[in-house]
Amino acid sequence: MTVNATDPDAQYKVPPIDTGAYTIYRPVTATNEAVTVNYALSGSMTNGVHYTLSGSATIGAGAASTVLTLTPTYVGFGGNAVLTLTTGAANNYPVGISPSDQATVTIAAPALPAEYLVVTNGTPGVTSTEPYGTWATAAKDIQTAVNFAGAVSATHPTINTVTVSNGTYNITAQISITNGITVRSFGNGVYGGLGNASNTMVNGGGGYIRGLLVSNTLATVDGFTIQRCEQPDKNTLMDYSGAGVWLYGGVLQNCIAQDNNRQAQSRNVNYTQGGGVYLTGGGTVSNCVIRRNVGFGPSAWGGGVYMNSGLLTHCQVYNNTNSAYGSLSSGAGVYMTGGTTRNCLIYGNISITGGGAYVGGGALQSCTIVTNSASTDGGGVYLAGGTVSNSIVYFNTVGGVHSNLNTTAGLGNSCAINPGTNANGNITDNPLFTSLAGGDYTLKNTSPCIDKGSYQAWMTGAKDLAGNLRIQNAGVDMGAYETYVPPKGTVILFR
Ligand SMILES: [Ca+2]
């Protein structure tokens, strides 16, 4: 018997799979009767798991050889694997005629992509092919690639990044991210970021579908606009929470949530918790823009953001509305029962109470809250628990009682009036924005808010909303922006 590796190279790649082959010959001088050849395979891989071997080890009557085909079925290994086939005793033919009774086929580890790629389904010249590792073979919808990413599979490598080319992705079902993966946009040579977010749209088209459901604490979404999505229904928490994004743990960063849940009123839904974003499970929303989202119902909580834990930081939250008919409607910009809202600019939001924010628990820190309005109380913030610190709550309006806050209980080191207090480090003076009319809420050099904040541990090394150092000069400023005040006068010496 002689065995040759007549196709010594094999590889799992999709498609096609590159098979290997062993051919077992008998000597030309041998019998022409059918001969069954025993064989053994040795190597680090397991038949049925890593490959399958098909064919027959019987050399038929009158035939000179038989072929065994080796088909790789597993891609998740590293390094090449060698499989050696050894012929042994034949049941009706003497062995040992030939010394060439061994041959090897090598299964090569394919070059795995570092990421799954996605393009819009209108992109020309693309033939979607697993594993979507090049732009020419990219997936044409985000969910398809997300489903593969992070999954431990016998037939797919574990790749933890999905990169999505800029464009508009019209969805017909929510994008569900259940694994601890990173999903990021890509455009102009840059990954993620707010710049790409404005060109990479997840568009619900007004259908009654959520945009993103993120349910893994290790997941990160970076650089998308989520727009025109609607809360699926009005009956269960999952139905009426997070029309744009439902984030359980994980990170949403550099994203824009806009124009979500705008049909809530026409659908007469009973509840809304987070028309733009629902934040729970200790997740983080960072460097995002949350605008023009809607809450509706007798309990419209958080047209922009509803959060019961986690961190909302360095975000702009504006022009969200609670179009509600009930007095429980509160917190058009941010409704929080826990967690931390930090270093955010919250403006132009409209509600029944708490136009900018409702704080029922947790901490609101270093925020600038202006030009919001409420129809009954707390045009800026309605404080029912928790704390507001190092913030500016000013120039908000109300149809009822207090334009800025319903109470000063829980307010510290902040600038506010109606009501205002000089206790607990608070001040009531005009904060002197650079341009209130022009919407520039940075502080003039002469602002009374400069250096009047109170240090908190997170500020060390942190940036303000504009990306400048959070602490400058003699101490931290109140509000979302830090102003650097140059030393007075420069001594010029003449002689
Ligand atoms: Ca300062």
Kindly describe this structure.
By secondary structure, this protein is mainly beta. It has two domains: 2-108, CalX-beta domain (Immunoglobulin-like), CATH 2.60.40.2030; 116-476, Pectate Lyase C-like, CATH 2.160.20. It is built from four helices and 50 strands. The strands form ten sheets. Strands 10, 11, 14, 15, 18, 21, 25, 30, 34, 38, 42 and 45 form a twelve-stranded mixed sheet that branches. Strands 12-16-19-22-26-31-35-39-43-46 form a ten-stranded parallel sheet. An eight-stranded parallel sheet has the order 13-17-20-24-29-33-37-41. The protein is elongated, with a radius of gyration of 32 Å. The model has no long low-confidence stretch (mean pLDDT 90). The protein binds calcium ion. The site of calcium ion has 8 residues, from β50.
List the helices and strands and how they pair.
Layout: E1 2-7, E2 9-11, E3 20-25, E4 35-42, E5 51-55, E6 58-59, E7 65-72, E8 81-90, E9 102-108, E10 116-118, H1 142-148, E11 161-165, E12 167-170, E13 175-177, E14 182-187, E15 190-191, H2 194-197, E16 200-203, E17 212-214, E18 220-222, E19 225-227, H3 237-240, E20 245-248, E21 251-253, E22 256-258, H4 264-267, E23 271-273, E24 277-280, E25 284-286, E26 289-291, E27 294-296, E28 299-301, E29 305-307, E30 311-313, E31 316-318, E32 321-323, E33 334-336, E34 340-342, E35 345-347, E36 350-353, E37 357-359, E38 363-365, E39 368-370, E40 373-377, E41 381-383, E42 387-389, E43 392-394, E44 397-398, E45 411-412, E46 415-416, E47 433-435, E48 440-443, E49 471-472, E50 475-476
